[in-house]
Specification:
The protein is α/β, with parallel strands linked by helices. The chain is 26% helix and 29% strand. The chain starts with a helix and ends with a helix.
Length: 337
């Protein structure tokens, strides 16, 4: 960590020196303009099955800003001032997390982009990209439909699927770039709490709506992780059990982003090992229930909150050991009564 800190600081980035749009007295090296409100302050309470009690969260108000002379690290969407000071409002993650996860692609020299406006799209892991990042980009594109969009050159397939539907100029970059005028929506410390307005903007986005399959059926789907990380040793048995109960088994990595939306929009019940695939429950147009099969060391808040906000009944089956440990098959069989 010491060597990483020295390298990052030598390149002019100071993740340990931060500023915020709310602390105007510290913005002497950052010129910003608030263009319009994105979402007002709000409060949400959701039942947490892990501790069996209600938990609440306050969402601060968020706005669309125009930043002048900003430096953006495109993979995670981290933003710095011209002097290298970190802008806290660009991420829902804590400053410590951002520092520890600061990417190594900072060795690339920065380029100054001579454009009037730029919007950026992160390449974060799927859940965080879809639930925490994408809605901000969609809103910015709606407000400034002709703006170029900055994308990390080695972005995941789902990012390329999204930008493939855009008429905008896409600027692929391999490392941090200096942008003359950058559009961004500030983020609060909301990681783990999906924002209702973000979900609304995702579900109402034209190309996504167009992908919905409106031939409603009582399809039940098991999302397999057999070809992914964190797959239990006996997942093939779990998959066979669900198939015997009428569930269709799918591997989402075999489908592009819009095919996944189409496939899941026509589903009423979904089950799977705790992981990014369950994020797609937000596309269910006639939801009934979700089963989350989680390891006790990695039972995060992601899916019971998404299910609650999607008006979907949430259930879970928790197993011990490591991610790869066998799941007692009777634990899953009990789900069917």
């Amino acid at each position: 960590m010491f060597l990483k800190r020295k390298l990052v600081n030598s390149l002019g980035y100071k993740p340990n020196r931060s500023t915020s749009l709310d602390r105007l007295e510290e913005l002497s090296d950052f010129t910003s303009s608030k263009l319009r409100e994105y979402s007002p302050i709000s409060y949400l309470e959701i039942w947490d099955p892990r501790c069996e009690k209600l938990k609440g969260h306050v969402f601060d108000s968020r706005s669309l800003y125009l930043l002048q002379d900003a430096i953006i690290e495109p993979k995670q969407g981290l933003i710095y001032s011209g002097k290298g000071n970190f802008l806290e409002d660009c991420t829902p993650w804590s400053q410590v997390h951002v520092y520890n996860s600061f990417p190594w692609n900072t060795s690339k020299r920065m380029n100054y982009l001579e454009i009037d406006f730029a919007i950026y799209l992160t390449s974060n892991p799927y859940y965080h990209w879809l639930i925490e990042d994408l809605a901000s980009t969609i809103y910015s594109l709606r407000e400034f439909p002709h703006s170029p969009i900055i994308v990390y050159k080695d972005c995941p397939a789902y990012v390329r699927d999204f930008v493939s539907e855009l008429p905008n100029e896409v600027i692929y970059v391999s490392g941090p770039v200096r942008v003359k005028s950058l559009l961004m929506i500030n983020k609060g410390r909301d990681s783990g709490w999906p924002h209702p307005i973000d979900l609304e903007n995702l579900r109402s986005y034209g190309p996504f709506v167009k992908a919905f399959n409106r031939n409603y059926q009582d399809d039940e789907v098991y999302i397999s992780r057999l070809n992914s990380k964190r797959s239990p040793k006996n997942e093939f048995q779990i998959e066979e059990l669900f198939q015997s109960k009428g569930y269709k088994s799918i591997r989402l990595e075999e489908f592009n982003l819009f095919e996944q939306i189409s496939l899941l929009s026509n589903v009423t019940s979904v089950a799977g090992i705790h992981g990014a695939g369950l994020t797609n429950l937000i596309w269910m147009q006639n939801p009934n229930k979700v089963l989350d099969i989680a390891n006790k060391s990695y039972w995060t808040e992601c899916f019971h909150r998404l299910a609650s906000m999607s008006r979907t009944r949430y259930d879970s089956r928790i197993y011990g050991g490591t991610f790869e440990s066998e799941v007692p098959i009777e634990l899953i069989a009990d789900y069917f009564g």
